[in-house]
Amino acid sequence: MEISFSTMLLQSAFSFIACYGYSIVCNAPRRELVYCGINGFLGWFVYLLVYVYVPGEHTVMATLISTMVVTAIARFLSYHREAPSILYHIPGILPLVPGAAVYNTMQSGFVGNILETYSYALSGFKLAGAIGIGSLLILVLPYSAFEIIPRRGDRKKQAKS
After folding, report:
1. How much is the mean pLDDT over the chain?
2. I need a surface site. Which of 1, 42, 71, 82 has the fewest CB within 10 A?
3. What's the domain count of the chain?
4. Which residues contact 51 (CB under 8 A, 6 or more apart)?
5. Is 156 part of any domain?
6. What is the pLDDT of residue 161?
7. Count of alpha carbons within 13 Å of 54, Cβ hemisphere only?
8. What are the φ and ψ backbone dihedral angles of 150, each rounded to 5 degrees?
9. HSE of 67 in the Cβ direction (CA atoms, 13 Å)?
10. How many angstroms separate the CA atoms of 74 and 102, rounded?
11. Domain-located, residue 114
C-alpha cells in the first residue's frame, strides 16, 4: 500500500482532532486536551509508518507497535504532567480501535456469510489483542523507567542542593 507522506500527516491531523474532541466529551482537564490530541496524532502516525514502510500486510504488528508508543507516551506524560496515565492512554488508542472489523463482522453475520463473519471476527480479535498486549508490555514497566527527563520542579530542587 502506498500512501504519500502528506496524506499520512493529514490523517494524523484528523486523528489529533478526533482525540482532542473525545477528550472534551470525556471531561478531560482543559490544560491536558492538547496532550491527549498529540498522543492520538503520534499513535496514528506510527501506525501508518509501520503499515506503509514494512513490507506485507501487517495491520496487527502496526497496531501492536503504535499501541506501545501510545502507552509509553501516556506514561511519560503522566509522570511529567502529574496526571493519571489513562487520561492520555484512552484517547491515544481511540484511532487504533478495530471498529471496521467489528462493523464488517456484524454486517456479514446479518447477511449470512458465515466464512466472512469468522474472518472479520478473527481480524477484530487479533487487533484487539494487539492493543491489549501492546498496552500491557509498557504498563508492566516500572514508573521509574519514565523518569528519563527530570520534572521541572525536580530540576529546581537539584539546583538548590
Report:
1. 90
2. 1
3. 1
4. 1, 58, 59, 62
5. no
6. 53
7. 14
8. -65, 150
9. 24
10. 26
11. yes
Q: Is the confidence at residue 150, as pLDDT, over 90?
A: no
Residue 151 or residue 69, greater confidence: 69
Quick one: cell of 74? 501516556
Taking the CB of residue 161, how many other CB atoms lie within 10 A of it? 4
In a domain, 23, yes or no: yes
pTM: 0.88
Q: Are the C-beta atoms of residues 51 and 62 closer than 8 Å to each other? A: yes
Domain limits at 115? 5-151
Residue 157 falls inside a structural domain: no
DSSP string, 93-155: HGGGS-HHHHHHHHHHHHHT-HHHHHHHHHHHHHHHHHHHHHHHHHHTS-GGGG-SS--HHHH
> Which amino acid is residue 79, in one-letter code?
Y
